[in-house]
């Protein structure tokens, strides 16, 4: 029997405006929280373990950032300059046969400060051109409404998502973009990795931690999270009203944990930790807070302001599908003393001795992706979409100009085979798969270019030196064949 994926499976790749778009002051765009994120150059594992510290920022650091136009130590300001290369880049992606391309709209390109009543026409027109270019190649855009790029003004003047007014600003933005692009975009995501506000509150929620009392900040994070839940539900409502056939999903950081041992204490710790991951998708899928999250609020003495109208909105407008990122797995234990820690996607955890790691400490676990798919589908019985999965590595250009990234091919192939088994053997309904990222871009937490993910190499280094020339890697033609054969080539 021929092994292929479902007939209409959506193969593609994923990017985010804040990591590759550039043009941070062009076309009327205002600064976002990402435009003040500074480059870090980790030398060893201990430099990667403070995820919160890597992503947090103070008013003084924001002031310092805004006093300079520097793009070397603020690399998200230049990214890979997609703003000026979008036609070339979309053609390269289409050359692999992409069915779908996940990207985000920079909120501050549409509403430069975030609180304006009238949108920026230049910003709207830019995305018109981008979507037209995608559709020219029959490549469906999958658009994230907010991907780590709230307008900076909302953070400095309104305290970001802690302020309930931000719901209204977001709703206005969603109404504008869904009306404008109603004939061009039918797949939408509300917030990228909505759960990550707990791990990096400034980047996700525009929360400046130093403004709040330390002992109260966790409650502040969950209050901001509640406002995002309400905003996400309203975004589903508005999108369905403006685009009746649209599909709107949530997006979860799929952190997959194993108990470090079979000690009951470690198993219980794993269950508790996974609940801390699933509580965000539970809320968006079922339209109500899970009992265990409300118990946590009560036990910690949190008072999260939520009205009956908030809860009704959340219940009436759940998401249509669940999308998620998956890169690696790790372990948890009731007692971490003496255990080796390692980094992962916006988190740190105990290293699994049975699993290899990338150069950045992310553990490579293809079977963990299958386990994640089974868990999510059994839990929700709604379509799933893997919208981020990939390997960050240091790629080398050979003397003949080739880039032989066999390690990336090996990583992706093993994960795709596990996806196939989840669909064919486990009955998982999987809509599609977009790799992170099909073209090199600025890696998120460390703001490095040298941690590369793409099938396409971009000639720019950590210090913004290079020609910005695009070069196909070995993995480019490999992924092209995977898509052409709808996965059959994976089993050759």
From TrEMBL:
One of its GO terms (biological process) is carbohydrate catabolic process. The active site is at residue 388. It comes from the Bacteria. Gene3D superfamilies: Glycosidases. The keyword Isomerase does not apply. Belongs to the glycosyl hydrolase 1 family. This is 6-phospho-beta-glucosidase. It comes from Kandleria vitulina DSM 20405. The lineage of its organism: Bacteria, Bacillati, Bacillota, Erysipelotrichia, Erysipelotrichales.
């Amino acid at each position: 029997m021929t092994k292929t994926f479902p007939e209409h499976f959506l193969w593609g790749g994923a990017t985010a405006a804040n990591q590759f778009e550039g043009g941070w002051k062009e076309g009327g765009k205002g600064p976002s929280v990402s435009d003040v994120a500074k480059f870090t150059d980790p030398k060893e594992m201990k430099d990667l373990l403070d995820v919160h510290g890597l992503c947090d920022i103070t008013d003084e650091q924001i002031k310092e950032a805004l006093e300079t136009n520097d793009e070397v130590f603020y690399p998200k300001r230049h990214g890979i300059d997609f703003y000026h290369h979008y036609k070339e880049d979309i053609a390269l992606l289409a050359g692999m046969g992409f069915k779908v391309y996940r990207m985000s709209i920079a909120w501050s390109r549409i509403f430069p400060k975030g609180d304006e009543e009238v949108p920026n026409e230049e910003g709207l027109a830019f995305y018109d051109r981008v979507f037209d270019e995608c559709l020219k190649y029959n490549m469906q855009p999958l658009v994230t409404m907010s991907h780590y790029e709230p307008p900076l003004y909302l953070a400095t003047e309104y305290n970001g998502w802690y302020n309930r007014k931000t719901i209204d600003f977001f709703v206005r933005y969603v109404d504008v973009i869904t009306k404008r692009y109603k004939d061009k975009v039918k797949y939408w995501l509300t917030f990228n990795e909505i759960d990550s506000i707990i791990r990096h509150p400034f980047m996700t929620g525009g929360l400046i931690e130093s403004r709040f009392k330390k002992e109260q900040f966790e409650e502040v994070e969950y209050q901001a999270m509640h406002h995002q839940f309400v905003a996400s539900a309203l975004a589903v409502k508005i999108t369905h009203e403006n685009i009746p056939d649209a599909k709107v999903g949530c997006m979860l950081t799929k952190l997959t944990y194993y108990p470090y041992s079979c000690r009951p204490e470690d198993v219980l710790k794993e269950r508790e930790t996974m609940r801390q991951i699933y509580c965000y998708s539970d809320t968006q899928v079922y339209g109500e807070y899970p009992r265990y999250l409300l118990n946590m609020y009560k036990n910690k003495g949190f008072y999260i302001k939520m009205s009956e109208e908030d809860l009704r909105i959340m219940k009436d407008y759940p998401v249509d599908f669940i999308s998620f990122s998956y890169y690696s797995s790790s372990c948890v234990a009731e007692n971490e003393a003496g255990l080796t820690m390692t980094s992962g996607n916006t988190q740190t955890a105990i290293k699994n001795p049975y699993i290899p790691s990338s150069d950045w400490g992310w553990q490579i676990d293809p079977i963990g992706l299958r386990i994640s798919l089974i868990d999510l589908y059994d839990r929700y019985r709604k379509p799933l979409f893997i919208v981020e999965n990939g390997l960050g590595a240091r790629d080398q250009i050979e003397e003949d100009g080739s880039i032989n990234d066999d390690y990336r091919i090996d990583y992706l192939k093993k994960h795709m085979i596990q996806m196939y088994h989840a669909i064919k053997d486990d009955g998982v309904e999987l809509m599609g798969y977009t790799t992170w990222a099909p073209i090199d871009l600025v890696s998120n937490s460390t703001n490095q270019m040298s941690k590369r993910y793409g099938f396409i190499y971009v000639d720019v280094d950590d210090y913004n030196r290079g020609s910005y020339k695009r070069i196909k890697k070995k993995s480019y033609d490999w992924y092209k064949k995977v898509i052409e054969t709808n996965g059959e080539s994976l089993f050759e």
